[in-house]
Amino acid sequence: MDKINYLRRKAIEIRMNLIQMIFDSKAGHTGGSLSSVDILVALYYEVMRIDPSHPKWGDRDRFILSKGHSVEGYYNILADLEFFPKEELRTYSKFGSRLIGHPSVSVPGVEMNTGALGHGLSVGVGMALAGKIDRKDYKVYVMMGDGEQAEGSIWEAAMAGAHYKLDNLIGIIDRNGLEISGNTEAVMKLEPLKGKWASFGWEVDEVDGHNMEELVRVLKDLPSAEQKPHLLIANTIKGKGISFIENNPKWHHKVPDEQQMKQVLRELESQLKEVTGGG
What we know:
- By secondary structure, the protein is of the alpha/beta class.
- 42% of the residues lie in helices and 12% in strands.
- It has nine helices and seven strands; from the N terminus they run H-H-E-H-H-E-H-E-E-E-H-H-E-H-E-H.
- The longest helix has 23 residues.
- The two termini are 15 Å apart.
């Protein structure tokens, strides 16, 4: 199996695991977790410089999940890479578990407590600036939601990132077009999103957030400009991979019932067979 097909298969497996975790715990944010999986898989399995056996390695690339509510795919990837034991995933959202509904630094591999939207990029600016001061060559990746772009702190951080010429800072927007209240353009108009970020002094690229080959190619090519931070708009589908969840705002944090769960697994198992050539 070639590398891209391996990553596609891994993304489907992560989707299966995260939806099972949500079903078992009866809690979680389904739609946004599913839309961001391909981006996370590209980053963690092919692009970022990390060492799961040494989560605090000084030269590691940093990743911040600013849209912290979409944590289920993130936890499954960290466990799959052995930042912590996979068995711990069964404790998700249970009393006393460190795997709560938003990322916590008590979990190995997590750089920042997130959940209150709008703060991840500001911390990412600080991390990237520290890297420059310390003459380190690590990169800082910050994944944001598109609904999160309504937070004023995002744009303060955008100004700071450009001011300090942080070409080691890469922002990613999971542009699935939906937030908890509905379509982003109805709730708080974002477009022209690419033009707004460019006007703040960022180098901006756009990508199909579910095209693994394109994702890997573009992410590996960053930074593509000197002395400018980079913003990648990843166009995605909320609820990606499951027919009755895709583009349905009701599934922002809805949990499947038993019948729905059976259909979820049927659809994802079918996709897995297609990727592996099994029919």
